[in-house]
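note to self — DONT lose this again. spent like an hour looking for the file last time. sequence + predicted structure for the chain T wanted, 487 res
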Amino acid sequence: MMDAVDHYSTRPTVAIIGGGFTGAVVAAHLARDRAMDGWQIAVFEPRERLGCGLAYDTAEPAHRVNVPAARMSIDPDDPDHFMRWLEFRGEPRDDPEALARDGHLYPARQLFGRYVAEAIAPFLEHGRIAHHRERVIAVERQGAAWAVRGDGGTLSRADVLVVATTHPAPEAPAGIGAVLAGHPRYVPDSTEPDALDRIRSGDRVLIIGTGLTSADVFATLRRRGHKGPITAFSRRGLRSRGHADRAQDPYGDFVSRPWRSAAELLSQVRRTILDAEAEGFTWHAVLDALRAQGGEIWRNLPMTERRRLVRHVRPFWDVHRFRVAPQIDAVVSAGLRDGDIRVLAGSIAHIARVGKNVAVTFRRRRAGGTEEGEFDAVVITTGPAHRSILQSQSWLESLGAAGYLRPDTVGLGLACSETSRALDSEGREVDDLFVAGPLARGTFGELMGLPQVNDHAIFVAAQIAALAQARRVHRGARPHSAAAPAG
Protein backbone atom coordinates (compact mmCIF):
# COMPACT_ATOMS: atom_id res chain seq x y z
CA MET A 1 0.00 0.00 0.00
CA MET A 2 1.00 3.61 -0.52
CA ASP A 3 2.05 5.92 2.26
CA ALA A 4 0.07 8.93 3.41
CA VAL A 5 -0.88 11.65 0.95
CA ASP A 6 1.69 14.29 0.12
CA HIS A 7 -0.32 16.36 -2.37
CA TYR A 8 -3.84 15.93 -3.66
CA SER A 9 -6.65 18.06 -4.99
CA THR A 10 -10.18 18.16 -3.63
CA ARG A 11 -11.30 18.98 -7.16
CA PRO A 12 -11.97 16.20 -9.65
CA THR A 13 -8.69 15.48 -11.40
CA VAL A 14 -7.39 14.04 -14.65
CA ALA A 15 -3.88 12.61 -14.23
CA ILE A 16 -1.91 12.21 -17.44
CA ILE A 17 1.17 10.02 -17.18
CA GLY A 18 3.60 11.19 -19.83
CA GLY A 19 3.98 14.79 -20.95
CA GLY A 20 5.49 14.32 -24.37
CA PHE A 21 3.64 15.36 -27.51
CA THR A 22 0.58 13.17 -26.88
CA GLY A 23 0.17 14.02 -23.20
CA ALA A 24 0.64 17.73 -23.85
CA VAL A 25 -2.00 17.81 -26.59
CA VAL A 26 -4.49 15.87 -24.45
CA ALA A 27 -3.88 18.28 -21.55
CA ALA A 28 -4.16 21.40 -23.72
CA HIS A 29 -7.47 20.35 -25.26
CA LEU A 30 -8.88 19.41 -21.87
CA ALA A 31 -7.82 22.82 -20.55
CA ARG A 32 -9.76 24.52 -23.35
CA ASP A 33 -12.93 22.47 -22.89
CA ARG A 34 -15.66 24.10 -20.80
CA ALA A 35 -16.87 20.64 -19.76
CA MET A 36 -13.67 20.46 -17.69
CA ASP A 37 -14.35 23.63 -15.71
CA GLY A 38 -13.69 22.86 -12.06
CA TRP A 39 -11.36 19.97 -12.90
CA GLN A 40 -7.64 19.84 -12.18
CA ILE A 41 -5.42 18.59 -15.03
CA ALA A 42 -2.18 17.08 -13.72
CA VAL A 43 0.63 15.89 -15.97
CA PHE A 44 3.45 13.71 -14.66
CA GLU A 45 6.51 14.30 -16.82
CA PRO A 46 10.13 14.42 -15.57
CA ARG A 47 11.38 16.62 -18.41
CA GLU A 48 11.58 20.35 -17.86
CA ARG A 49 9.12 21.17 -20.65
CA LEU A 50 5.85 19.57 -21.61
CA GLY A 51 5.32 18.63 -25.23
CA CYS A 52 8.85 17.58 -26.13
CA GLY A 53 9.02 13.94 -25.11
CA LEU A 54 11.61 11.53 -26.39
CA ALA A 55 11.37 12.65 -30.02
CA TYR A 56 11.69 16.41 -29.58
CA ASP A 57 13.70 16.75 -26.38
CA THR A 58 17.01 16.67 -28.19
CA ALA A 59 19.72 19.27 -28.62
CA GLU A 60 21.41 17.31 -31.42
CA PRO A 61 21.35 19.48 -34.60
CA ALA A 62 21.45 16.39 -36.83
CA HIS A 63 18.06 15.26 -35.49
CA ARG A 64 15.53 16.79 -37.87
CA VAL A 65 11.80 16.47 -38.29
CA ASN A 66 11.20 13.85 -40.94
CA VAL A 67 8.23 15.52 -42.61
CA PRO A 68 8.13 19.07 -44.00
CA ALA A 69 7.48 21.72 -41.36
CA ALA A 70 4.48 22.91 -43.37
CA ARG A 71 2.69 19.67 -42.39
CA MET A 72 3.42 19.80 -38.65
CA SER A 73 0.81 22.15 -37.22
CA ILE A 74 -0.72 21.05 -33.91
CA ASP A 75 -3.89 22.97 -34.80
CA PRO A 76 -5.87 20.87 -37.30
CA ASP A 77 -7.85 23.99 -38.26
CA ASP A 78 -4.72 26.06 -38.94
CA PRO A 79 -2.21 24.11 -41.08
CA ASP A 80 0.23 27.05 -41.20
CA HIS A 81 0.45 27.43 -37.41
CA PHE A 82 3.96 25.96 -37.05
CA MET A 83 5.29 27.82 -40.10
CA ARG A 84 4.08 31.14 -38.69
CA TRP A 85 5.66 30.28 -35.34
CA LEU A 86 8.99 29.68 -37.09
CA GLU A 87 8.72 32.90 -39.07
CA PHE A 88 7.77 35.00 -36.05
CA ARG A 89 10.85 33.76 -34.15
CA GLY A 90 13.22 34.01 -37.07
CA GLU A 91 13.75 30.25 -37.16
CA PRO A 92 15.46 28.17 -38.19
CA ARG A 93 18.47 30.38 -37.60
CA ASP A 94 22.12 29.35 -38.02
CA ASP A 95 20.93 26.28 -39.89
CA PRO A 96 21.49 26.77 -43.63
CA GLU A 97 20.80 23.09 -44.32
CA ALA A 98 17.25 23.25 -42.94
CA LEU A 99 15.90 24.17 -46.38
CA ALA A 100 16.10 21.05 -48.51
CA ARG A 101 16.49 20.92 -52.28
CA ASP A 102 12.79 20.14 -52.64
CA GLY A 103 12.01 23.58 -51.19
CA HIS A 104 10.65 22.28 -47.88
CA LEU A 105 11.91 23.12 -44.41
CA TYR A 106 13.13 20.26 -42.21
CA PRO A 107 14.22 22.08 -39.03
CA ALA A 108 15.90 20.47 -36.04
CA ARG A 109 13.46 18.51 -33.91
CA GLN A 110 14.21 20.62 -30.85
CA LEU A 111 12.47 23.55 -32.56
CA PHE A 112 9.24 21.61 -32.84
CA GLY A 113 9.57 20.70 -29.17
CA ARG A 114 9.84 24.40 -28.31
CA TYR A 115 6.78 25.12 -30.43
CA VAL A 116 4.62 22.57 -28.59
CA ALA A 117 5.98 23.65 -25.20
CA GLU A 118 5.12 27.29 -25.89
CA ALA A 119 1.61 26.32 -26.97
CA ILE A 120 0.93 24.69 -23.59
CA ALA A 121 2.83 27.25 -21.46
CA PRO A 122 -0.14 29.65 -20.91
CA PHE A 123 -2.18 26.85 -19.33
CA LEU A 124 0.67 26.17 -16.93
CA GLU A 125 1.11 29.84 -16.07
CA HIS A 126 -2.58 30.24 -15.25
CA GLY A 127 -2.71 27.06 -13.20
CA ARG A 128 -5.08 25.30 -15.57
CA ILE A 129 -2.53 22.48 -15.93
CA ALA A 130 -0.21 21.29 -13.15
CA HIS A 131 3.13 19.88 -14.25
CA HIS A 132 4.68 17.43 -11.80
CA ARG A 133 8.32 17.03 -12.85
CA GLU A 134 8.49 13.47 -11.61
CA ARG A 135 8.54 9.92 -12.89
CA VAL A 136 5.55 7.86 -11.85
CA ILE A 137 6.63 4.99 -9.66
CA ALA A 138 3.27 3.57 -8.54
CA VAL A 139 -0.42 3.64 -9.43
CA GLU A 140 -3.16 2.04 -7.37
CA ARG A 141 -6.90 1.75 -7.58
CA GLN A 142 -8.40 3.25 -4.45
CA GLY A 143 -12.17 3.02 -4.41
CA ALA A 144 -13.59 4.97 -7.35
CA ALA A 145 -10.32 6.80 -7.99
CA TRP A 146 -6.65 6.27 -8.81
CA ALA A 147 -3.72 7.18 -6.59
CA VAL A 148 -0.64 8.18 -8.60
CA ARG A 149 2.74 8.54 -6.90
CA GLY A 150 5.74 10.31 -8.39
CA ASP A 151 9.36 9.74 -7.45
CA GLY A 152 9.52 13.25 -5.97
CA GLY A 153 6.89 12.47 -3.35
CA THR A 154 3.77 13.80 -5.06
CA LEU A 155 0.68 11.67 -4.54
CA SER A 156 -2.22 12.68 -6.72
CA ARG A 157 -5.79 11.45 -6.48
CA ALA A 158 -7.19 11.06 -9.99
CA ASP A 159 -10.77 10.52 -11.09
CA VAL A 160 -9.54 9.82 -14.62
CA LEU A 161 -6.17 8.34 -15.57
CA VAL A 162 -4.51 8.69 -19.00
CA VAL A 163 -1.60 6.51 -20.06
CA ALA A 164 0.36 8.69 -22.48
CA THR A 165 3.75 7.24 -21.75
CA THR A 166 6.57 6.86 -24.26
CA HIS A 167 7.56 3.76 -26.16
CA PRO A 168 9.54 1.11 -24.31
CA ALA A 169 13.31 1.23 -24.77
CA PRO A 170 14.84 -0.84 -27.59
CA GLU A 171 15.72 -4.41 -26.84
CA ALA A 172 18.92 -6.00 -28.09
CA PRO A 173 18.55 -9.36 -29.87
CA ALA A 174 18.84 -12.36 -27.56
CA GLY A 175 22.29 -12.84 -26.07
CA ILE A 176 23.88 -9.64 -27.35
CA GLY A 177 23.18 -7.58 -24.25
CA ALA A 178 24.64 -10.23 -21.97
CA VAL A 179 27.83 -10.44 -24.05
CA LEU A 180 28.36 -6.68 -24.34
CA ALA A 181 27.20 -5.48 -20.92
CA GLY A 182 29.89 -3.27 -19.45
CA HIS A 183 31.75 -2.74 -22.73
CA PRO A 184 32.89 0.92 -22.80
CA ARG A 185 31.50 1.52 -26.28
CA TYR A 186 28.31 -0.51 -26.15
CA VAL A 187 25.25 1.74 -26.60
CA PRO A 188 22.07 -0.20 -25.71
CA ASP A 189 19.80 2.81 -26.32
CA SER A 190 20.99 5.52 -28.70
CA THR A 191 18.09 7.80 -27.73
CA GLU A 192 19.54 8.40 -24.27
CA PRO A 193 21.16 11.86 -23.92
CA ASP A 194 24.87 11.83 -24.85
CA ALA A 195 24.69 8.10 -25.60
CA LEU A 196 27.01 8.44 -28.60
CA ASP A 197 29.65 10.48 -26.77
CA ARG A 198 31.57 7.31 -25.97
CA ILE A 199 32.22 6.56 -29.66
CA ARG A 200 35.59 7.81 -30.93
CA SER A 201 36.16 9.39 -34.34
CA GLY A 202 37.91 6.39 -35.87
CA ASP A 203 35.87 3.59 -34.31
CA ARG A 204 34.52 0.80 -36.45
CA VAL A 205 30.84 0.92 -35.55
CA LEU A 206 28.22 -1.80 -35.77
CA ILE A 207 24.59 -0.61 -35.65
CA ILE A 208 22.01 -3.32 -34.98
CA GLY A 209 18.77 -2.09 -36.56
CA THR A 210 18.35 -0.20 -39.84
CA GLY A 211 15.25 1.98 -39.36
CA LEU A 212 14.79 5.68 -38.61
CA THR A 213 16.87 5.63 -35.43
CA SER A 214 19.86 4.15 -37.22
CA ALA A 215 19.66 6.99 -39.75
CA ASP A 216 19.79 9.46 -36.84
CA VAL A 217 22.92 7.68 -35.59
CA PHE A 218 24.55 7.87 -39.03
CA ALA A 219 23.88 11.60 -39.29
CA THR A 220 24.90 12.36 -35.71
CA LEU A 221 28.21 10.52 -35.93
CA ARG A 222 29.14 12.10 -39.26
CA ARG A 223 28.20 15.59 -38.05
CA ARG A 224 30.52 15.07 -35.08
CA GLY A 225 33.40 14.22 -37.38
CA HIS A 226 33.33 10.45 -37.10
CA LYS A 227 35.43 8.95 -39.95
CA GLY A 228 35.37 5.24 -39.17
CA PRO A 229 33.41 2.66 -41.17
CA ILE A 230 29.83 1.96 -40.13
CA THR A 231 28.01 -1.32 -40.66
CA ALA A 232 24.24 -1.40 -40.10
CA PHE A 233 22.60 -4.77 -39.73
CA SER A 234 19.08 -6.15 -39.48
CA ARG A 235 17.24 -9.31 -40.37
CA ARG A 236 15.99 -7.95 -43.70
CA GLY A 237 18.50 -5.16 -44.25
CA LEU A 238 15.75 -2.63 -44.96
CA ARG A 239 16.59 1.02 -44.36
CA SER A 240 14.20 3.97 -44.13
CA ARG A 241 13.61 5.62 -47.49
CA GLY A 242 13.71 9.29 -48.39
CA HIS A 243 11.00 11.63 -49.60
CA ALA A 244 9.87 12.14 -53.18
CA ASP A 245 11.73 14.85 -55.05
CA ARG A 246 8.49 16.71 -55.79
CA ALA A 247 5.15 17.34 -54.12
CA GLN A 248 2.42 14.81 -54.92
CA ASP A 249 -1.16 14.39 -53.81
CA PRO A 250 -2.07 11.04 -52.20
CA TYR A 251 -2.93 8.45 -54.83
CA GLY A 252 -5.26 5.51 -54.33
CA ASP A 253 -8.52 4.45 -52.72
CA PHE A 254 -8.25 1.63 -50.20
CA VAL A 255 -11.49 2.13 -48.26
CA SER A 256 -14.34 2.09 -50.79
CA ARG A 257 -13.96 -1.66 -50.73
CA PRO A 258 -13.52 -2.87 -47.13
CA TRP A 259 -10.51 -5.18 -47.32
CA ARG A 260 -10.84 -8.30 -45.19
CA SER A 261 -7.59 -10.01 -46.22
CA ALA A 262 -4.04 -8.77 -45.72
CA ALA A 263 -2.89 -10.59 -48.86
CA GLU A 264 -5.62 -9.01 -51.01
CA LEU A 265 -4.89 -5.57 -49.56
CA LEU A 266 -1.19 -5.96 -50.33
CA SER A 267 -2.00 -7.04 -53.92
CA GLN A 268 -4.15 -3.95 -54.33
CA VAL A 269 -1.33 -1.74 -53.02
CA ARG A 270 1.05 -3.22 -55.59
CA ARG A 271 -1.45 -2.71 -58.40
CA THR A 272 -2.04 0.87 -57.30
CA ILE A 273 1.70 1.61 -57.30
CA LEU A 274 1.92 0.36 -60.90
CA ASP A 275 -1.06 2.53 -61.86
CA ALA A 276 0.49 5.52 -60.10
CA GLU A 277 3.81 5.09 -61.89
CA ALA A 278 1.98 4.91 -65.22
CA GLU A 279 0.47 8.32 -64.43
CA GLY A 280 3.76 9.87 -63.34
CA PHE A 281 3.43 9.42 -59.59
CA THR A 282 5.85 7.59 -57.31
CA TRP A 283 5.18 5.04 -54.58
CA HIS A 284 5.32 7.89 -52.05
CA ALA A 285 1.89 9.11 -53.18
CA VAL A 286 0.37 5.66 -52.72
CA LEU A 287 1.85 5.24 -49.25
CA ASP A 288 0.55 8.70 -48.33
CA ALA A 289 -2.95 7.58 -49.30
CA LEU A 290 -2.53 4.40 -47.27
CA ARG A 291 -1.41 6.42 -44.27
CA ALA A 292 -4.36 8.82 -44.50
CA GLN A 293 -6.83 5.93 -44.82
CA GLY A 294 -4.95 3.68 -42.40
CA GLY A 295 -7.38 3.89 -39.50
CA GLU A 296 -10.37 2.77 -41.55
CA ILE A 297 -8.34 0.09 -43.34
CA TRP A 298 -7.23 -1.30 -39.98
CA ARG A 299 -10.73 -1.33 -38.51
CA ASN A 300 -12.03 -3.28 -41.51
CA LEU A 301 -9.47 -6.06 -41.13
CA PRO A 302 -10.22 -9.07 -38.90
CA MET A 303 -7.84 -9.56 -35.98
CA THR A 304 -6.09 -12.51 -37.64
CA GLU A 305 -5.33 -10.34 -40.68
CA ARG A 306 -4.06 -7.49 -38.50
CA ARG A 307 -1.63 -9.94 -36.90
CA ARG A 308 -0.57 -11.16 -40.32
CA LEU A 309 0.18 -7.60 -41.44
CA VAL A 310 2.22 -6.88 -38.32
CA ARG A 311 4.17 -10.12 -38.61
CA HIS A 312 4.93 -10.08 -42.33
CA VAL A 313 4.42 -6.58 -43.74
CA ARG A 314 5.24 -4.14 -40.93
CA PRO A 315 9.03 -3.99 -41.59
CA PHE A 316 8.38 -3.01 -45.23
CA TRP A 317 5.67 -0.55 -44.25
CA ASP A 318 7.86 1.13 -41.64
CA VAL A 319 10.78 1.89 -43.97
CA HIS A 320 8.48 3.38 -46.61
CA ARG A 321 6.08 5.12 -44.25
CA PHE A 322 8.63 6.66 -41.86
CA ARG A 323 10.92 8.52 -44.23
CA VAL A 324 14.10 10.29 -43.32
CA ALA A 325 14.62 14.01 -43.90
CA PRO A 326 16.47 14.74 -47.17
CA GLN A 327 19.49 16.03 -45.27
CA ILE A 328 19.86 12.73 -43.41
CA ASP A 329 19.14 10.67 -46.50
CA ALA A 330 21.96 12.51 -48.28
CA VAL A 331 24.43 11.54 -45.54
CA VAL A 332 23.41 7.88 -45.67
CA SER A 333 23.34 7.75 -49.48
CA ALA A 334 26.80 9.28 -49.71
CA GLY A 335 28.16 6.77 -47.22
CA LEU A 336 26.63 3.85 -49.10
CA ARG A 337 28.01 5.18 -52.37
CA ASP A 338 31.51 5.68 -50.96
CA GLY A 339 31.53 2.36 -49.16
CA ASP A 340 32.13 3.67 -45.63
CA ILE A 341 28.52 2.77 -44.70
CA ARG A 342 27.24 -0.75 -45.30
CA VAL A 343 23.80 -2.27 -44.73
CA LEU A 344 23.67 -6.04 -44.22
CA ALA A 345 20.73 -8.47 -44.03
CA GLY A 346 20.75 -11.72 -42.12
CA SER A 347 21.37 -12.90 -38.58
CA ILE A 348 24.20 -12.90 -36.08
CA ALA A 349 25.64 -16.39 -35.81
CA HIS A 350 28.19 -15.50 -33.13
CA ILE A 351 29.29 -12.47 -31.12
CA ALA A 352 32.13 -12.26 -28.61
CA ARG A 353 34.39 -9.74 -26.94
CA VAL A 354 38.01 -9.98 -28.01
CA GLY A 355 39.93 -7.67 -25.74
CA LYS A 356 38.47 -4.20 -26.31
CA ASN A 357 36.94 -5.23 -29.62
CA VAL A 358 33.75 -7.08 -30.57
CA ALA A 359 34.02 -9.97 -33.03
CA VAL A 360 30.86 -10.81 -34.99
CA THR A 361 30.01 -13.56 -37.44
CA PHE A 362 27.10 -12.66 -39.72
CA ARG A 363 24.95 -15.22 -41.48
CA ARG A 364 23.97 -13.48 -44.72
CA ARG A 365 20.29 -13.57 -45.69
CA ARG A 366 20.40 -13.27 -49.46
CA ALA A 367 23.92 -14.12 -50.55
CA GLY A 368 24.23 -17.08 -48.18
CA GLY A 369 27.33 -18.05 -46.26
CA THR A 370 28.86 -16.08 -43.42
CA GLU A 371 30.95 -12.95 -43.00
CA GLU A 372 33.16 -12.02 -40.09
CA GLY A 373 33.82 -8.55 -38.78
CA GLU A 374 35.49 -6.83 -35.86
CA PHE A 375 34.17 -3.64 -34.32
CA ASP A 376 35.13 -1.07 -31.71
CA ALA A 377 31.57 0.03 -30.86
CA VAL A 378 28.07 -1.44 -31.04
CA VAL A 379 24.85 0.61 -31.07
CA ILE A 380 21.35 -0.85 -30.67
CA THR A 381 18.63 0.83 -32.78
CA THR A 382 16.13 -2.02 -33.05
CA GLY A 383 13.12 0.13 -32.15
CA PRO A 384 10.80 -0.05 -29.13
CA ALA A 385 10.24 -3.43 -27.46
CA HIS A 386 6.44 -3.15 -27.64
CA ARG A 387 5.83 -6.73 -26.55
CA SER A 388 7.45 -5.88 -23.23
CA ILE A 389 5.36 -2.77 -22.63
CA LEU A 390 3.97 -3.86 -19.26
CA GLN A 391 7.45 -4.76 -18.00
CA SER A 392 8.94 -1.44 -19.13
CA GLN A 393 7.79 0.49 -16.04
CA SER A 394 6.84 -0.74 -12.59
CA TRP A 395 3.50 1.08 -12.44
CA LEU A 396 2.45 -0.41 -15.79
CA GLU A 397 3.42 -3.84 -14.54
CA SER A 398 1.37 -3.39 -11.36
CA LEU A 399 -1.69 -2.24 -13.31
CA GLY A 400 -1.27 -5.27 -15.54
CA ALA A 401 -0.97 -7.58 -12.54
CA ALA A 402 -4.12 -6.03 -11.04
CA GLY A 403 -5.98 -6.74 -14.29
CA TYR A 404 -6.53 -3.13 -15.41
CA LEU A 405 -4.15 -3.25 -18.40
CA ARG A 406 -3.10 -5.91 -20.86
CA PRO A 407 -1.05 -5.95 -24.08
CA ASP A 408 -2.98 -5.78 -27.32
CA THR A 409 -3.27 -8.94 -29.36
CA VAL A 410 -1.10 -7.74 -32.25
CA GLY A 411 1.96 -6.77 -30.19
CA LEU A 412 1.95 -2.99 -30.78
CA GLY A 413 1.05 -1.64 -27.34
CA LEU A 414 -1.86 -1.74 -24.91
CA ALA A 415 -5.33 -3.14 -25.49
CA CYS A 416 -8.03 -0.48 -25.68
CA SER A 417 -11.52 -0.01 -27.06
CA GLU A 418 -12.74 2.19 -29.91
CA THR A 419 -13.17 4.98 -27.33
CA SER A 420 -9.50 4.50 -26.34
CA ARG A 421 -10.43 3.20 -22.91
CA ALA A 422 -8.18 0.45 -21.58
CA LEU A 423 -9.47 -3.10 -21.80
CA ASP A 424 -8.98 -5.12 -18.64
CA SER A 425 -7.88 -8.75 -18.36
CA GLU A 426 -11.47 -9.83 -19.11
CA GLY A 427 -11.75 -7.61 -22.18
CA ARG A 428 -14.02 -5.06 -20.48
CA GLU A 429 -13.66 -1.29 -20.81
CA VAL A 430 -12.19 0.49 -17.79
CA ASP A 431 -14.39 3.58 -17.85
CA ASP A 432 -11.89 6.02 -16.31
CA LEU A 433 -8.61 4.66 -17.74
CA PHE A 434 -7.53 5.85 -21.20
CA VAL A 435 -4.66 4.94 -23.54
CA ALA A 436 -3.45 7.88 -25.62
CA GLY A 437 -0.91 7.96 -28.42
CA PRO A 438 1.04 5.27 -30.27
CA LEU A 439 0.47 2.63 -27.59
CA ALA A 440 -3.15 2.51 -28.84
CA ARG A 441 -2.07 1.39 -32.32
CA GLY A 442 -3.36 -2.13 -31.88
CA THR A 443 -6.90 -0.71 -32.01
CA PHE A 444 -6.51 2.40 -34.16
CA GLY A 445 -3.84 1.32 -36.64
CA GLU A 446 -1.92 4.29 -38.06
CA LEU A 447 -0.85 6.15 -34.92
CA MET A 448 2.77 7.08 -35.44
CA GLY A 449 2.72 10.06 -37.81
CA LEU A 450 2.29 13.40 -36.09
CA PRO A 451 -1.06 14.35 -37.71
CA GLN A 452 -2.60 11.03 -36.68
CA VAL A 453 -1.18 11.20 -33.14
CA ASN A 454 -2.44 14.79 -32.85
CA ASP A 455 -5.94 13.83 -33.99
CA HIS A 456 -6.01 10.87 -31.62
CA ALA A 457 -4.94 13.00 -28.65
CA ILE A 458 -7.77 15.43 -29.45
CA PHE A 459 -10.16 12.48 -29.68
CA VAL A 460 -9.08 11.17 -26.26
CA ALA A 461 -9.54 14.63 -24.72
CA ALA A 462 -13.07 14.74 -26.15
CA GLN A 463 -13.87 11.33 -24.64
CA ILE A 464 -12.69 12.50 -21.22
CA ALA A 465 -14.66 15.74 -21.49
CA ALA A 466 -17.80 13.76 -22.37
CA LEU A 467 -17.22 11.54 -19.32
CA ALA A 468 -16.81 14.62 -17.10
CA GLN A 469 -20.01 16.12 -18.48
CA ALA A 470 -21.91 12.87 -17.91
CA ARG A 471 -20.72 12.72 -14.30
CA ARG A 472 -21.75 16.34 -13.76
CA VAL A 473 -25.25 15.62 -15.03
CA HIS A 474 -25.46 12.44 -12.95
CA ARG A 475 -24.53 14.33 -9.79
CA GLY A 476 -26.92 17.14 -10.54
CA ALA A 477 -24.03 19.60 -10.78
CA ARG A 478 -23.39 19.29 -7.03
CA PRO A 479 -19.92 20.37 -5.90
CA HIS A 480 -17.46 17.51 -6.07
CA SER A 481 -16.02 16.31 -2.81
CA ALA A 482 -13.52 13.52 -2.32
CA ALA A 483 -11.75 11.98 0.57
CA ALA A 484 -8.00 11.67 0.42
CA PRO A 485 -6.69 8.26 -0.63
CA ALA A 486 -6.30 5.98 2.32
CA GLY A 487 -2.86 5.36 3.70
